[in-house]
Design a protein that fits this description.
The structure is a single chain. Strands 1-8-2-3-7-4-6-5-9-10 form a 10-stranded mixed sheet, sandwiched between helices. It has helices at about 10-25, 45-55, 70-75, 80-90, 125-135, 155-160, 200-205; strands spanning about 1-5, 30, 35-40, 65, 95-100, 115-120, 135-140, 165-170, 180-185, 190-195. By secondary structure, it is α/β, with parallel strands linked by helices. It is built from 7 helices and 10 strands. The chain is globular. α1 (about 10-25) packs parallel to α5. It is about 30% helix and about 20% strand. A hairpin with a 6-residue loop joins β9 (about 180-185) and β10.
Length: about 210
Amino acid sequence: MLYDCRSLADRDRGIAAAIEAVKNGELVVLPTDTVYGVGADAFTPYAVKALLDAKGRGRDVPPPVLVGSRHTLDGLVYMLPTAARDLADAFWPGALTIVVEHSPSLQWDLGETGGTVAVRMPLHPVALEVLRETGPMAVSSANKSGQPPAETAEQARDQLGYAVRAYLEAGQCPEPVPSTIVDVTGEVPRLLREGAIPLEKLREVLPDLVGREG
């Protein structure tokens, strides 16, 4: 079912349907500030498997996790590095994904993570409204592997079809550029992917950040 969140009534119905779907272990497509994402409850292993299957991906490519609050990050890690805290304070909500070591006590199975997880708080009102009710969601770009990322929910539906329970349409992505990814699990923070937030902006917060050229 596709809900047009540009209409107030449809938006309310769509968000309610998406929250219910996620809590039932089903997949949803939702807008973010980068590209549309296909998501599932991060703590429901069969839902995460369904997400990977829908995309045509294996467990060797675990999905990132989206959160609806900066404070949720504290609950996902055993101890939050200062670099991660500084980055989140500066750029969240926004197009920055932070790779951290997740707490070993978490009851989830995102795939072959090696004990790390990529976390982001998106700057989109629809996504945040859903995430604040569902809690952390495993979310990957809403497309089949190898295909271009969807810039509308309708494009996502063309690729993912009936694998997804609810599609939340909010129009064309304003800037369909992927998020920047920074890894803070090592001694020195490292840029893994250049994206919407440029390296020089990140270095204003973390001067010792190692770029991809490093």
